[in-house]
Backbone:
């Protein structure tokens, strides 16, 4: 595909203009491909929105770069490429990327090797691929795509335009909203870690709870989202989880929260809206994490966190405090030696003082 700048601007009017005269921008320049900032060639389009890339505009080999509206480089910085200004360079770039790599249209079909239970029939425009197993009384919306080897247990509900990728398991009464994406290997509705001690043994408890997932949610690969013995595990609208995330029984996650890879959230914890939980953070059970909190990577959260806080470290603390402490930690061996040295000198002085008395 080859698109000139004028054609792209017509399709995406938010890319408002090429930089005005003074550079070598050419609206008839034809783009043959899209690429990352460092790998782009003279006929590629790329984008730059972070300072680390904007400061190197003059180093890129790209033929065209999408930049923020506020970007005002020196003339030398853009003499070799076309610069396009837009309010959101990253979003605009990926909209254009969709032109070069359009999604393969989903052709409605139920594969002969799929097994559908009683009273379970996909809605209009849906596709069910090979070796899918669907239990009884499953409600499947319109334009749903269920890929190979998926298992959907009895009583599940799947909203319109949802995509379930290979080898996903949905346990009983799991509910997915509209426009949900579940990536390969995830298990939703697995039993929580529920046992009762009885004379030195651990007796398994029956799990009657279920999982409800809102609209426009994306679940990463190999997530495990548990149901409780009772009640609901709930992910709100717009939640996005990365790969290898564990969400325990009866957890509640508010709208538009981001959960990054290898995060573990223990049971019955409530996470607010617009929260960011960075990679490998661990959150204890029965806590309340307020709206718009940011939890740093590797953090261990053991107490409630009020809204609009940024916390890091183990145990968690205000991020600024953790930055100071993390800078001190590598110096502890040296500080220990100095402390022992000071103790020895003090003892020597005390000994000499006692002798002179």
Residues:
């Amino acid at each position: 595909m080859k698109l000139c700048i004028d054609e792209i601007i017509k399709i995406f009017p938010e890319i408002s203009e090429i930089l005005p005269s003074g550079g070598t921008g050419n609206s008839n320049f034809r783009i043959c491909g899209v690429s990352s900032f460092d790998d782009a060639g003279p006929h590629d389009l790329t984008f730059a929105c972070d300072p680390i890339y904007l400061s190197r505009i003059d180093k890129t080999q790209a033929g065209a770069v999408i930049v923020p509206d506020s970007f005002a480089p020196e003339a030398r910085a853009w003499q070799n490429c076309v610069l396009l200004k837009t309010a959101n360079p990253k979003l605009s770039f990926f909209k254009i990327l969709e032109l070069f790599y359009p999604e393969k249209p989903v052709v409605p079909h139920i594969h002969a090797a799929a097994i559908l239970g009683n009273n379970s029939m996909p809605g209009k425009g849906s596709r069910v691929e090979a070796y899918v197993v669907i239990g009884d009384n499953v409600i499947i919306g319109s334009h749903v795509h269920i890929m190979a080897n998926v298992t959907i247990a009895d009583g599940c509900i799947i909203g319109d335009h949802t995509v379930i990728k290979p080898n996903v398991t949905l346990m009983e009464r799991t509910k997915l909203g509209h426009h949900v994406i579940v990536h390969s290997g995830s298990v939703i509705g697995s039993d929580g870690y529920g046992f009762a001690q009885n004379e030195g043994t651990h007796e398994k408890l029956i799990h009657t709870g279920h999982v409800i997932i809102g609209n426009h949610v994306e679940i990463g690969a190999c997530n495990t989202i548990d149901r409780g013995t009772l009640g609901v595990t709930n992910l709100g609208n717009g939640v996005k989880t990365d790969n290898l995330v564990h969400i325990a029984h009866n957890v509640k996650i508010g709208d538009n929260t981001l959960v990054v890879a290898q995060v573990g959230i223990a049971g019955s914890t409530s996470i607010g809206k617009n929260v960011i939980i960075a990679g490998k953070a661990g959150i204890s059970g029965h806590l309340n994490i307020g709206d718009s909190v940011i939890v740093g990577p590797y953090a261990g959260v053991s107490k409630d966190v009020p809204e609009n806080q940024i916390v890091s470290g183990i145990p968690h603390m205000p991020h600024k405090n953790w930055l100071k402490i993390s800078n001190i930690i590598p110096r502890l061996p040296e500080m220990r030696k100095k402390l022992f040295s000071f103790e020895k000198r003090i003892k020597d002085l005390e000994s000499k003082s006692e002798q002179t008395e």
